Structures are given as C-alpha cells and as structure tokens.
C-alpha cells in the first residue's frame, strides 16, 4: 500500500516545480515537455513511491548503487539529527567526535590501512589521491613518477581531473581537453577477450606492465582500478589478475589505488571489494554506501607509509597536504556512517549479501538458459550484470535501444533496474542489478521475474 498521504495529497504542484526548475542528472529533458518527470516521495525498505502513488521495487539502491541498508532507517536519521543539534560542522583542519570515531571503526575493517581523509563525493575522494600522488612525485621523486594509470571501462568520477581517468569514453566526450599524465591500460573482461591464452587474468595484468615499460617505470606513480568494474559493464576480475597486479606495482614502486566508491561497505559481500583478492592497496576511496545516502560523505584512506610522506620534513612549509574539502567537515556524514556500519553488522548484512547474491546469480543463469539474448552473467555479491547480445556465437552486442527497452518495461512493471548508460560506445548493453543489502528471496525473485517478462516482450 502507498503511504497514506499519497492517497489524499495532490502533488501536481511539486511535479510542475520540478519540471520548471530542476535540472536532472543523466537526463535528456526534451521529453519532459510532453510527459511528467518522475518525482519520488517516500521510500521504505526496498520500495519507493512516486508522486502519483505508484509503488516500485528498487533494484539499483537509489539509482546509483548507494542505499545499501534500504530506505526509512529512523536510527540513522535520529543519529544525524542529534549530532546536528550538538555540532553540525567544523572545517577538517580540526577534528570532531563522529569524525574520529568513524575513522577508528573504519580502519578496524581495513587491515594495513591507517588514515582517513574526509570529503563529500567519490569524485572528490579520487581527486585527493591524484593530488597526493603528484605531491609525492614533487617531494620525493624530483617531479618524476607523476603519471597515473587507469583502466579501460573503469570510471572514477565526474570532475575534469577524474574524467581524465575515465575508461568510459562517452562519459568523457565533449568535456576535454584533459590534463596530461593519465594513461590507459587494457580492461580485463575475458568475455570480450583481447588475448587467446589460458591464464587470462595474468595476461590481462601483464598488459599493465607493458604500458609501464612503454611509459617508463620512473614516470609512473600510481594506478587506479575498481575491484569490480561498475558502470563499464559489471566486470569481475579473472582468476590470477589481482595478485599479478600487486606484484607489478611492488616491482616498479607504483602506488595502488583501489576505487571502492561502488563496491565499498558491503556491496560485494565483504566490507570492501579488494578484500576478496588478498591484496594490500596504498589508497582506498569510498563514497556511495558509506552512509547509504543518508548524508554526503566520502573517504580517502591511506597507509601510514603514505601518510608519513606528508610530515617527514616539517621545516618545509610545502610538505603537508595542502588541500581542503569544505563539506568534509560536516558531522552528519560520519555519524550516519557509524550507524550504517552498526546496521550492517547487527543485521548480518554481509552474510545476507553473499546468500542473496548467490540467489541472484542463479536466477540470472536460469534466465540465460531461457533467453538467447543473454550472452553472459557476472557479478559479486549483490552487484550483478547480464550482458545482452545480438548473437551469442559472434558476441555482437545488443543494440542499446533494445537494452533500454528492457529497462523501460521493467519500470512499467514497477521494478527499477539499470543498464550501462552513455559509457562505452557500442557496449552499453549490460543490465545492472544492485539491490539493497537487506534484500530477501522474494525481492530477488521479483527482480528476475520482471526481467524475464521484459526480455520475453522485447525480444519475442
């Protein structure tokens, strides 16, 4: 049943205000001249209601993989309210109680890491790493080791700096020119294999070494990678990939930056995606699920070794990290993050994510047996994708408009799913699912039943 106020209140004025004044993200607004923009009013658990009272099952956790613990968490809202009355903000040049306590709790989940730098978005968290790497280059390498490697199909943010490391060409188109020193390495998606070898994971990692040798190891300071590629097609790394990447980074003294903006805080069934693969990064960045969207927060987490590089010459007035993020000083973020973490622990949501992720993958595999248009299913935890193909044999990608027709049909059924969107030219063909970590068997089955019906309708 929809919330009671939606049964009686006329919200047409809200819709009109939205149409007249709001510039939506990732949206072509021409359509809103003839149709109403969708305005969501309330959420509970995994359900949403819009201004017309229609109910939706949210299979993408707020549209962009964020609301990990679900909607309507009063305990998070109450914790934020109580903190804002006590102290809402002070710039990050000083500390706050929730900032200190969440940093401590976070580091407990990240063996080998030790320091937390707060900001307010994933893009900003990644940009901080790039600045740190460049400052280390100037301070310790005479300006060398300034280049940052990034991977094809990965995405690291929407600023000019982070778009310079976008492995999704459509994300970056028309926003350049970009700064120098950012160099692409090949993706590791075995389904669209670039090499005909048995040990594909190691070969994909070796391709990184080839780029390093081409550029010159003394010019490369860091590499940024997603543990599981998100918007570039939900790409899980092949076996052997990550250990070889770690080996290469240590061989050439290259800092390893893991972008956990999507995967962090439980999405893959561990606290962080990289923890599946037995590696030790130098930087870990996170944002979306840190507070499940109840407050804006992102974190750039480093090792003590990296941290020491910014205080080992106190007589040098340029030695420390001369950066600030205004809203990194908000207390609402870390206090919401503390309660978010408690919920994940107390409700066993990591374990639930593994169990429900297995169910989701099993259901998608069953759909692949039924629908020839599904060429591949892949994922980790509650972060899964189904790649649609025109021909399984040739692995020719499905036309993007037909992929979006599947998404639209699910939406008409009251089920929200995603698909790769304005990312990789010719390969915006993967259906994306990232339900909240609270998902139950009926929720998982409802998602895949809707996809089943949509595939039947679109491709019959």
Descriptive report:
The chain is an alpha/beta fold. The protein has 15 helices and 16 strands. The protein has helices spanning 4-8, 12-21, 61-65, 74-86, 97-108, 122-140, 160-163, 169-172, 200-215, 241-251, 304-308, 332-346, 349-370, 400-412, 441-459, and strands spanning 40-44, 47-50, 55-58, 115-119, 147-151, 182-185, 220-225, 255-259, 283-286, 298-302, 374-379, 384-391, 396-397, 415-416, 418-419, 430-433. Strands 4-10-9-8-7-5-6 form a seven-stranded mixed β-sheet, with helices on both faces. Strands 11, 12, 13, 15 and 16 form a five-stranded antiparallel β-sheet that branches. A four-stranded mixed β-sheet has the order 1-2-3-14. β1 (40-44) and β2 (47-50) form a beta hairpin. α4 (74-86) packs antiparallel against α12, α5 (97-108) runs parallel beside α12 (332-346) and α9 packs parallel to α10 (241-251). The radius of gyration is 22 Å and the shape is globular. It starts with a helix and ends with a helix. Belongs to the class-III pyridoxal-phosphate-dependent aminotransferase family. Keywords: Aminotransferase, Pyridoxal phosphate, Transferase. GO terms for molecular function: transaminase activity.
Structural class: alpha/beta
Rounded to an integer in angstroms, the radius of gyration calculated over CA atoms is 22 Å
Low-confidence stretches: none
| Number of discrete helical segments | 15
Overall residue-averaged pLDDT value:
96
Count all strands and give the number.
16
Fraction of residues in helix: 25-40%
The general outline is globular
Q: What order do the strands of the largest sheet run in, or round the barrel if closed?
A: 4-10-9-8-7-5-6
Distance between the termini: 33 Å
Binned strand content: 15-25%
Question: Major beta sheet, specifics?
Answer: 7 strands, mixed
């Amino acid at each position: 049943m929809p919330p009671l106020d939606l049964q009686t209140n006329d919200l047409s004025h809200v819709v009109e205000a939205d149409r007249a004044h709001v510039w939506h993200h990732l949206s072509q607004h021409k359509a809103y001249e003839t149709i109403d923009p969708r305005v969501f009013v309330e959420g509970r658990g995994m359900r949403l209601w819009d201004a017309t009272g229609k109910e939706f099952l949210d299979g993408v956790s707020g549209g962009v993989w964020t609301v990990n613990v679900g909607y309507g968490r009063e305990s998070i809202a109450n914790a934020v309210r109580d903190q804002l009355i006590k102290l809402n903000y002070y710039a990050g040049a000083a500390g706050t109680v929730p900032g200190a306590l969440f940093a401590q709790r976070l580091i407990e989940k990240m063996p080998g890491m030790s320091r937390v730098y707060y900001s307010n978005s994933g893009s900003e968290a990644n940009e901080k790493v790039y600045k740190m790497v460049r400052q280390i280059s100037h301070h310790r390498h005479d300006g060398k080791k300034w280049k940052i490697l990034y991977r094809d199909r990965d995405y690291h943010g929407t600023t000019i700096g982070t778009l310079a490391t976008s492995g999704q060409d459509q994300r970056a188109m028309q926003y350049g020119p970009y700064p120098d020193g950012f160099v692409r390495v090949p993706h590791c998606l075995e389904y669209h294999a670039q090499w005909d070898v048995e040990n594909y994971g190691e070969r994909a990692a070796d391709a990184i070494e080839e780029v390093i040798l081409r550029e010159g190891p003394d010019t490369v300071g860091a590499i940024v990678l997603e543990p599981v590629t998100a918007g570039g097609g939900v790409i899980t790394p092949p076996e052997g990939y990550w250990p070889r990447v770690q080996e290469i980074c240590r061989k050439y003294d290259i800092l390893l930056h893991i972008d956990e903006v999507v995967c962090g805080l439980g999405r893959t069934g561990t606290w962080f995606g990289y923890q599946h693969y037995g590696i030790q990064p130098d930087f870990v960045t996170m944002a979306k699920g840190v507070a499940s969207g109840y407050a804006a927060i992102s974190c750039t987490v480093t090792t003590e070794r990296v941290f020491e590089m910014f205080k080992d010459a106190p007589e040098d007035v340029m030695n420390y990290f001369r950066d600030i993020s205004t809203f990194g000083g908000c207390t609402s973020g870390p206090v919401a993050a503390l309660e978010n973490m408690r919920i994940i622990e107390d409700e066993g949501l990591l374990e639930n994510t593994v169990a429900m992720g297995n169910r989701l993958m099993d259901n998608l595999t069953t759909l692949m047996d039924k629908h020839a248009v599904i060429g591949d299913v892949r994922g980790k935890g509650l972060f899964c994708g189904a790649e649609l193909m025109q021909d399984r044999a040739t692995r020719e990608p499905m036309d993007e408009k037909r992929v979006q027709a599947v998404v639209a049909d699910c939406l008409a059924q009251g089920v929200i799913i995603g698909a790769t969107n304005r990312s990789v030219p010719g390969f915006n063909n993967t259906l994306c699912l990232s339900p909240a970590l609270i998902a139950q068997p009926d929720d998982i089955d409802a998602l895949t039943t809707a996809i089943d019906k949509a595939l039947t309708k679109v491709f019959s």
